[in-house]
Write a structure and sequence with these properties.
The chain is mainly beta. Helices cover 9% and strands 48% of the residues. The chain has one domain: PCu(A)C copper chaperone (Immunoglobulin-like, Sandwich). The radius of gyration is 19 Å and the shape is globular. The termini are far apart. 21% of the residues are buried. This is Copper chaperone PCu(A)C. InterPro entries: LpqE-like, Lxx211020-like, PCuAC_sf.
């Protein structure tokens, strides 16, 4: 049996393979939704601590504002959105009851800004596992997705990308 060299593979087949490869890196929940969620990940829990942090980036690509009303993480007693703020010359974490995304706005949840704070872990968050994240928006509705747990922010090729379903 003869072997096929890479140079003998026709261009349409290469394009098809590339498309399927990209589909594995980015998962769009729905192409109609204006809300895009990029790079979600949760820090692994540290032994002896009952809390952890989570991060992602939200973009409202639509023409109407939308508000993030609720966040839940599987196996976590309570999840809150927090923000680091300078209060009396000291950096403090302050709860944010809800987050409004203006049209065309991107908000990044990152270690030194907005972030998720996960309290009352039912079990440790181990690197390599995935936990279900549930977000409830005023207009976009509810979305659930699996988010990786890691020691550090995943590399670009490992980051999931999601579009929230239209309501």
């Amino acid at each position: 049996m003869s072997r096929l060299s890479l140079s003998q593979i026709p261009l349409p087949l290469w394009l098809l393979l590339a498309l399927f490869g990209l589909a594995g890196c980015s998962t769009l929940i729905s192409p109609q939704s204006p809300i895009l969620l990029d790079d979600p990940w949760i820090e692994h829990s540290v032994e002896g601590r009952d809390s952890a942090k989570g991060y992602f980036r939200l973009t409202n690509q639509g023409d109407q504002p939308d508000r993030l009303l609720e966040i839940k993480v599987e196996g976590v007693g309570m999840t809150q959105l927090h923000e680091y703020k300078l209060i009396d010359d000291q950096e403090r974490m302050v709860p944010v009851p809800n987050l409004t995304l203006q049209p065309k706005e991107t908000v990044a949840l990152s270690p030194q800004g907005y972030h998720l704070l996960l309290f009352n872990l039912e079990r440790p968050l181990d690197s390599g596992e995935k936990r279900k994240l549930t977000l409830r928006f005023e207009k976009a509705g509810v979305v659930e997705l699996l988010v990786p747990v890691a020691h550090e922010e995943p590399r670009d090729e490992d980051k999931p990308r999601h579009r929230l379903p239209p309501r």
